[in-house]
Amino acid sequence: MEPFRFTTDLRLGIQAIDRQHVEWFQALENLRKLVDGGGGEAGVPKALAFAVSYTQRHFSDEEAAMRAAKCPDLERHLTEHTKLVNQLCDLTAQHGDDLAVAHQVLDLMAGWAREHIAVHDKAAAPALAKAGS
Ligand SMILES: [Fe+2]
Ligand SMILES: [Fe+2]
After folding, report:
1. Which domains, ranges and CATH numbers included, belong to the chain?
2. CA 39 to centroid of ligand 1, rounded, Å
3. What is the CA(116)–ligand 2 centre distance, in A?
């Protein structure tokens, strides 16, 4: 699996959100290393729980900033977040093998995170900047 790397082209220029995106990618990369690296499996449940809870926390903080800034297309953005959270909840509600769940979560996030930031978060950046976020 490809590493989760936050690259500068993903920056919005909104400090609080950029910082969370960096930490979000770090949480996902940390999980990927444990899953991929071999021998790190013992740390998977904790790293998986952290990556999922960080995703939810980030969405909630970002939505609050976007609401305050009256970002256009907010409803569509919230739908994107909600769909992803629902998918994560479905995956983590499975009982049993944390390693298999972590694999599926990483597969889901691999395409999603980069695409979402590049398209949807970036579209909100001008309104956030104008509001002084
Ligand atoms: Fe975001
Ligand atoms: Fe977002």
Report:
1. 15-130 (1.20.120.50)
2. 31
3. 6
Q: Which long-range contacts (CB under 8 A, 24 or more apart) does 64-70 make?
A: 65/14, 65/16, 65/17, 65/128, 65/133, 66/124, 66/127, 66/128, 68/131, 68/133, 69/124, 69/127, 69/128, 69/130, 69/131, 69/133, 70/127, 70/131
Question: Distance, CA 63 to ligand 1 centroid (Å)?
Answer: 9
The helix/strand/coil state of 69 is coil
Task: Give residue 122 CA to ligand 2 midpoint distance, Å.
Answer: 9
pLDDT along the chain (133 residues), means of 10: 95 98 98 87 94 98 97 96 97 88 96 96 97 88
In the three-class reduction of DSSP (H, G, I as helix; E, B as strand; rest coil), residue 131 is classed as coil
The pTM is what? 0.95
Ligand 1 centroid from CA 24, angstroms: 9
Give me ligand 2 centre to Cα 40, in Å. Answer: 30
